[in-house]
């Protein structure tokens, strides 16, 4: 197993290639929607502002498109072969974001108001549905056996993503959630779509099932690392970098990995955190919204004291290592293996 590349220039080039190759095809896909849906989708993607003026918004990290293109190369095809997969995965990802923002009550994404906040809940649901439908349309258009195989993998990944969101919501109404349950949820909600991006790109590039399955395992563990880092940023991230409020996950009472790990750790800090969170659960959302910064800071400090922060950081690194181990035994071009290593490293050191 080769050592991961940490050169940020390598990652920047991969992400930019993903945007450059998949970006025009993504816009062309969105252009198929009726004008009202197209307008709202364009706002969500950052292409226009709330008044409809052209904008150069933050379109996200573009990790999934980058993975789809690299996977097509890993299978022996050119990166262009993975473009339909990159577009389809981005459409599914953004379908989930539109719905998640509404379900979670998030008012900000990428440093500006979310779609439901600007255009209303009904429109956010409809546009999300439209993007989901477009994903299947785009990936099946080639009409080949590869396209059909890729579509099956994308459909499975989407179903797992939805399962993960359902699990996440169910956790909000439970007093106790185990670490393994939390990892299973993250594997579905985040890991499935990163795994889908890699396996769909690989199939479109000509991979057999063995190669696609190994790359899918890489993507699954990478997704768990990605979610672990997201959970760290959801509590301790810099709002100026993440675009979210301070202590955003604590404000939403999310049972994220640092919280669940801290509650399971035992010891005085874990006990104090348990008592606080049990009391929080009995408060109305209005009462909870009146908490000041110091109260959230206290909860974050207890999570850290109980070991939840360190455990989650260690888990991100463990999953990074398992992702790279999944590539063992595959005959990959050296530059492709290095690129997959560089992206894995980027996932665990990112700050947004």
From TrEMBL:
| CDD domains linked to this entry | Trans_IPPS_HT (cd00685)
One Pfam entry name: polyprenyl_synt
InterPro entries per UniProt = Isoprenoid_synthase_dom_sf, Polyprenyl_synt, Polyprenyl_synt_CS
What PROSITE patterns does the entry give? POLYPRENYL_SYNTHASE_1
Q: Which Gene3D superfamilies match?
A: Farnesyl Diphosphate Synthase
Which keywords does this chain's UniProt record carry?
Answer: Magnesium, Metal-binding, Transferase
Give the record's family classification: Belongs to the FPP/GGPP synthase family.
Q: What is this protein called?
A: Polyprenyl synthetase family protein
Which species is listed as the source? Streptomyces sodiiphilus
Q: What is the lineage of its organism?
A: Bacteria, Bacillati, Actinomycetota, Actinomycetes, Kitasatosporales
